[in-house]
Amino acid sequence: MLTNSYLCTLMFRIKKLDIFIAKQFGLLFVGTFFICQFVLMMQFLWRYVDELIGKGLSLEILAKFFWYMGLMLVPQALPLAILLSSLITFGNLGESSELTAIKAAGISLMQSFRSLIIITILIMLGSLYFQNVVGPNANMSFAQLLISMKQKSPELEIPEGVFYDGIPDCNLYVQKKDLRTGMLYGLMIYRRTGSYEDQAIILADSGMMQSTAEKRHLLLTLYNGEWFENMRSQELAGSASVPYRRETYSVKRIVLDFDAGFNLADVAGLSSDAKSKSIKKIVHDIDSLNDVADSIGRANYAYAKAAYYHMDSISKRDSLRAIKMAATKAMNTDTLFNRLSKSHKQQAIGMAVSSVANMNNDLEFKSMLSQDLERSIRLHKIEGIGKFTLALSCLIFFFIGAPLGAIIRKGGLGIPVIISVLVFIIYYICDNTGYRMSRLGVWSPWFGKSIATAVLSPLAIFFTYKANNDSTVFSMDAYVNFFRRLLGLRLKRHIDGKEVIIEDPNYANDAAELQRLSQEVTDYAHGHKLMHLPNIIKVFFKYEPDHEIERISEEMEAVIEDLSNTRDKLILTEINHYPILSVKAHTRPFEHRWMNIVAFILLPIGIFLYIRMWSFRLRLLRDLRTIKQTNASIVNRINEAYIK
Known about the structure:
9% strand, 18 helices, alpha+beta
């Protein structure tokens, strides 16, 4: 009865703890989400700031712009908000010693994560739903709004050095612009008014473009130029020549039709964008695009058989068959070509060049069509996979932030913000690199979009394991010791004279122990043959611990500990000559047997570890010789100064 009551009380306490941690996390999550959303929106806004400035956009249009931008960035802000809020939550608990009290009550760290794991999974599912339902419409509306904003006020959008076709029935080229005065220099205008016979080319040294008051037309004032225009003639309809007129002017004003008001662009051209589609639509369109690509491939295959190989079927040895067919024909093209007259030669060369050019253009067109289809399929796969990986990053970021908070035990917006930014930068670089490489076709879509998850998942597992076992992660001494063991480096002894000595060393006993250790060291060196290569089977498969060298090391350290109480400076100097023995490095690479087997299977690593272990055996032999020499020096000093 008492046990049941205790269990009920413990469950009640854990439930209260879950509610407490969930409240702490919830308040921080709401605040950090809006902070992350604001930062991402400001970073995103810099890309389109030129589309907003000087366009005379109304507050309603600007509000829609920021609203759709915010909706697009919600899935990206959620992982970062989870990372930052979970890190601050457990950092605050650790800093206020509440996390220590929780562990002292018998509640493990994973149990304290329980409520937040459920909340994070719900947020992850909500992110996936948001990307699948709200995100596509927000992306399409934002793209439509952005295109409409670009089409407004064309006088500010005309680029330098390229033809601009944003004005209906007109192509405009500007060599240079003066943004301060609004003057345009080096103008060339191609004006289309219906048919080819009605074209006009207008040149001008400079000019200025202004919108009319009703925003329905553009007034273009040109200075010092010429006007070339084709003239349609009914009488010369059957003639190949087309009359034209030429006009030289110093000042010319042209009125162009253009609606400079804000009008939403047509969304028909945006319907094929993968970002504006749900997962179901993406899967359906990928199947449709694959069918189109297969049909085009079969058509190109049939055309190649008929046009290039003149075969009904093509096997794996197509090229060899084609070469054999060309070689067996009793025809010498050079001889036939030399028999032709000069005019016929020129005609044959022209026909050959034209035929090759046509085939080249045909192949380039087919290649471009195939590449466009392949690129469209890749973009759809990237977008579909990205919805799942972005939602999964919420859970990964939680298992990075919460354990780090428990390890660092620092709350507030100081260290947590720095760590969150570093983690997010790593995620952003990996994800953006994977996206670009997948879009270019260098990497497959699933590899490119999952590389960020693959990089951060081991970090999440590592931090969670370390936090759950109260291991040190950011202790420099732990990493220094690890790399020292890995590289075979070792410490030197630094034993100084003690200011206060309670009991002097037992010199006679220590001298006897050192003489005995010298004999044991000699026997060990002869018996284990340290200069020879170790047995591979014993190293990687049948490990036997070397208890003898462990015992020698322990006994030597005991004598050193006793002699460290001496006031004799010569003995203290000799004690520091003793090496610190590595009693396990010369026997096997790793503690666990399965790790040794894996190291043997991975041949380059196994060879490196085997040679490294042999070097440890040679170093142990040198250390044993140093121990014998030091023992002899200390024994002589004891016999001279302390034993009568």
